[in-house]
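User: Is it possible to get a 3D structure for a protein together with its bound compound? The compound here is adenosine-5'-diphosphate. I've pasted both below.
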Amino acid sequence: MCSLELCGASPSKPSVAMFLRELTEPTSTQKGIGRVSSETLKKAGITTVADLLLHIPRNYEDRQTVVPIAQAVAAGIAANTVVTVITHDYIGRGKNATLKIFIEDESARAALLCFGRNFLRSALVPGKRYFLYGQFSYKYNELQTSAFETEPYTQNPAIFGNILPVYPLYGSLTQRFFRNVIQAALRNYAPDIENELPERIVEKYGLEQKSRAIRLVHFPGSLEQAEQAKKSLGYEEFFYLQLVIKRRAKKLKASPRHSGKIGAGLAAKLEARLPFGLTTDQRKVLAEIRDDLESGTPMMRLLQGDVGCGKTLVAFIAALFAVEAGEQAAMMAPTELLARQHAETAASMLEPLGVRVALLSGTVAPRMRARLLEALACGDIDILLGTHALFSQDVKFKRLRLVIIDEQHRFGVLQRLALVEKGELGKSPPDMLLMTATPIPRSLALTVFGDLDVSTIRTMPPGRKPVETHLARIGNEEKVYSWVSREVKNGRQAYFVYPLIEQSENLELKDAQSMFHNLKSRVFPDLRLALLHSRLPEEEKKETMDLFVGGKIDILVATSVIEVGVNVPNATCMVVEHAERFGLSALHQLRGRVGRAEHQSYAFFIYDKELTEEGRSRLKAIKETTDGFVIAEKDLSIRGPGELTGVRQAGRFKLVFVDILRDLELLKTARADVEQLLEDDPGLIDPQNRVVRTVLDRVPPFSEETAAGG
Ligand code: ADP
Ligand code: MG
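Assistant: Yes, that's possible. Here is the predicted structure of the complex:
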């Protein structure tokens, strides 16, 4: 989600659906791109010609519609007009003199201030006519502009009369740079871009041919043309997304399996050992899961339930069903921290029942890893927990029955699908249980996941007190600090969360590192503090977390690494500084780290004086409600669903041309078309099919950093 651990911008990869695979030539080989620009492009995630072509304009400048100066000033927009140069003049003397050119068009007289552009003296000749584009305003009793572009008045102007793309810029790269290199790339490569959509679809909607659509997105003949081109390409994105989803759903349906009664002996044993009883909703969901497991087709179920409602336990019991059937389960979490915590909980709960659990993460040593994989392959491990490392190529299960994905919204849609594909290798596909604290509207669930069953936990375990939420302005944090101090003296623990790991030159924000030192030396000299963020070595993170869990640390100063899943019931204070920098769900997740036991808990959201409208509504929402479902709805209305569904996640599956909420109708259309096509031509779902393969090939590698935030 939109957590704000600003540890390096995550480069946005081009959409998976955009099939431009042949254009993998590095940008650096392109004419007009030198070493420095190439480096800057790389930092922005633009490394190939395809990336360059998918660097789409954020806007367009209309140099077609004539807007005389007077009219432009009245409307507060740029003038686009034909002017005659009257005279030249200079402001100031000598070397520092600035050229000032008086011009007029049909509507007004005005002055061009040529700061640093005295060379325009010879380009703009008195008495001659020029096309001019510029933003004029009244100053010192005259109309002026210093931001303008001109071109000699001819019958065939190069720029005037066109629609110009306005690109997102990086570093010192200019609009002119992007226009030039993209134009060159289009000239050299666009003819090679093949149409991938089935011809009848292209005809049905009168879509643009792909190579033309790409060209028109950058250099359209009119604004309408740009829209039309975007729609064509957007349709294609949805089409591929739906194709992959449908293909998966079909395959599941088409793989009937032997199943039957699932014993619940192990589950009953676990329940008997628990210090508490399951909640009604936990029971209900487990019954649904058991039905699925006993049915003839694999389960595809989303379990949603607010932070702290006890999803982990449900997951473990579901895993026990699989184990009891003599098969294996895998549970994946988005961060190493959470995976390790799950593994530890699983070990203490399940090993006494004779169930063998293991943890596989990216940092397991090679020798250990080899042994672990061997045990897994011969069935000596029943439940494997871990990060995405679970699904690397060499991980082979003996009989993988159930895949559980915790905090599923942290993974991209296609990421999830790719993981499932792994589990399928050669065997009947595993049952899937996706878990999330961020509920998804039904219509989106259908369109984004295909056919997915949804289970919901609404009740909290008994005895929980709602977390008391307080807002405080920066400057008033002393009160919060003394509250925390009192809680710690009563034996409780606290989290402090900051939006940055370390001091940033560009942002005036408190950061975890500096605040850790500050809090430790100045505010809480008698207490035990520790620092936790994603850039620390795994070993150190583990140690710190262990100490915090064991009560050996009073205050954990952290970034949003602790946002998901972390469970330390004795912690009762969550202090988030610069709360305005966090998304609503992130705030809710953070607050969910406390109030996990019978102790009254507190969340303090400290915010900066300067709040955006959106920041204000987020804080208001978080203060007013503790219900995750209500919060998810508010979140949806504040910023749209992309983030909720995990579809529009930077670095993974980024929809370039469409937005799920705005273009929901187009998405539904694409979905219906895919369904129809699959009926007519089941070959489309053949994994050997070029289109399908391409889409799968473009699933980018997973990185925990993007999962953990940023
Ligand atoms: P989440 O749904 O956010 O993943 P967890 O699974 O981490 O929540 O559970 C939060 C806490 O609630 C844990 O400490 C867990 O042991 C406890 N818990 C789970 N189920 C129950 C229950 N039925 N009664 C009491 N406590 C429970
Ligand atoms: Mg959880």
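The domain at 65-161 is CATH 2.40.50.140 (OB fold (Dihydrolipoamide Acetyltransferase, E2P)). Confidence is low (pLDDT under 50) at residues 1-19, 641-653, 696-710.
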